C-alpha cells in the first residue's frame, strides 16, 4: 500500500472523519487542511439507495449551478445551416456534421460536452462506442439533443453540471473552485443536492440519500450532515 506523504498525513491529523459536518463548517475545514498550491476543485459525492441496473432506478440529469463551476468547458455541436450558425454565435468551440464526426473517429476529442440537433442523431449514433464510454453522447434528457442549440451551448458554458448514478449508486460532481467564496460553494452544493432529490427515480425504495461527502482535489474527504444541504428559504 502506498505511503502517505507528510503533508497529506498532517492534513488528516486530529480530524474526526466519523462525524457529519455541517456544510459551511466542512467547506472551512477543507480549506484549512488543503495542501494544494493551485485552484482546487471542490467535489461532492453522494451514495444513493439505487441499483441503476434496474431501469426504474436509473438517475441521469443536469443542473445549472448558480455560480457556475469555475471551469472553462469546450463544447462541440453537431448541426447544419442556421442551427450551426446559431451554435457558433452562442460560443460553441466546434461545429460541424460529417466533418466533425470524422474528426472524432480520428481521435480528435478536444471537448467536454457534445450537443446535437435531432436530425444529426443518425450521424452521432455511429459515434456511440466513442462518445458513450466518455459520457459525451448527446441525450434528450440532458437537453443536449435539441433544436435550441444556442441555449444548450450557453447552459453548458454557464455552469451546467450533468450527473449520472454509477453502478454502485454513487453520483458525484465538481461544484466549484477554491477561489469561490464559502457562500458560493455552499449555494452550488445545495443546488446539486436539490437536483438529485428532485430527480429521484420512481423505483427507488427505502433510504434514498445514504451518505454525502465533500472534498477538494487534495484534501481529506468529509462526511456532511444531510440536513444542512437542504435549500434554505
TrEMBL record:
One of its GO terms (cellular component) is cytosolic large ribosomal subunit. One of its GO terms (molecular function) is tRNA binding. This is Large ribosomal subunit protein uL1. InterPro entries: Ribosom_uL1_bac-type, Ribosomal_uL1, Ribosomal_uL1-like, Ribosomal_uL1/biogenesis, Ribosomal_uL1_3-a/b-sand, Ribosomal_uL1_CS. PANTHER family: 54S RIBOSOMAL PROTEIN L1, MITOCHONDRIAL, LARGE RIBOSOMAL SUBUNIT PROTEIN UL1M. One of its GO terms (biological process) is regulation of translation. PROSITE patterns: RIBOSOMAL_L1. The keyword Cell wall biogenesis/degradation does not apply. Pfam families: Ribosomal_L1. It comes from Rhodovibrio salinarum. Keywords: Repressor, Ribonucleoprotein, Ribosomal protein, RNA-binding, rRNA-binding, Translation regulation, tRNA-binding. Belongs to the universal ribosomal protein uL1 family. It comes from the Bacteria. Binds directly to 23S rRNA. The L1 stalk is quite mobile in the ribosome, and is involved in E site tRNA release. Protein L1 is also a translational repressor protein, it controls the translation of the L11 operon by binding to its mRNA. Part of the 50S ribosomal subunit.
